[in-house]
Amino acid sequence: VFQLSVPLNFLGSVYRELRQSLLDMETLFNLQKVNIAVKEPKDAKPLLLTGGEIRFENVTFGYRPDRPILKDLNFTIPAGKKVAIVGPSGCGKSTILRLLFRFYDVQEGRILIDGQDIRNVSLESLRKAIGVVPQDTPLFNNTIEHNIRYGNMDASAEEVRAAAKKAHIHESIQRFPDGYGTMVGERGMMISGGEKQRLAVSRLILKDSPLLFFDEATSALDTHTEQALLAHINSILKEKSRTSVFVAHRLRTIYDSDLIIVLRAGKVTESGTHEQLVDRAGLYSELWSTQETLFGGNGDETNLSGEG
Ligand code: ATP
Question: Any idea where the ABC transporter domain is (predicted)?
Fold first, then answer.
């Protein structure tokens, strides 16, 4: 038995990686037809978005049914608000996104978007409704222009440039050897992590989804680049009111959210605004003071702790 468990573990991690790269592919291509376990009903109607409220009701889910990751999970992400999901590593934050996209179905409970069970709506309309900036944006061996246009293959050259301007990447692109025609990806020019994530944001702008998901989108960046990207994202969010969900490790990137949902062991352990959670002296406040002790120290943070 012991000897067997090693190759099985290995297969498990290979499988997991495959699933995760599929997530990226699906996000980019919006490949409704390629899905593995999930079926849509014959009479599936398109998702009808009224404001963009996301609700998890008594959701239980595990990649293996005997090992639940989310346990009777309940939360509501109000329409048009900026919401953060935080919690210790492995508590199921990214799993929430995979369930929303219906890469898997819940084992118990239901997920509602604007009151509609996502199992009853067409997969195409569901996946179109959600735009994602992942932690590491995959680039295709193609031009910058093409890479941005993956957000919306029908976009005109002007729309691609307008999106790049909003994401604050247009000027950098103009400095690239062939501008928008510059080849990137494995066989093309290397671009920085910050530029990559701004490309992802321009894709998101082109896709124009009403629900936005930032899955550790800035976590691979240095603090300065991260702050700049977050400022751009915030100004884009202010333009139109959209539901936006930030999955984050570093609490300093999300403390200004309208609502912060704190997960522990597959359940919501507490939720509220930054101020409310700091006052509660629970897990959030514990994580906050640990991170401030570890990474704090400049003027910004002194101000922040003064407010909390
Ligand atoms: P982190 O903050 O480290 O990114 P997370 O909160 O986003 O973690 P998830 O990625 O949602 O956590 O994973 C939750 C749990 O599910 C982890 O224990 C992880 O190992 C496990 N897990 C994730 N994906 C799979 C998969 N495809 N198959 C099996 N187990 C998985």
Answer: 54-290
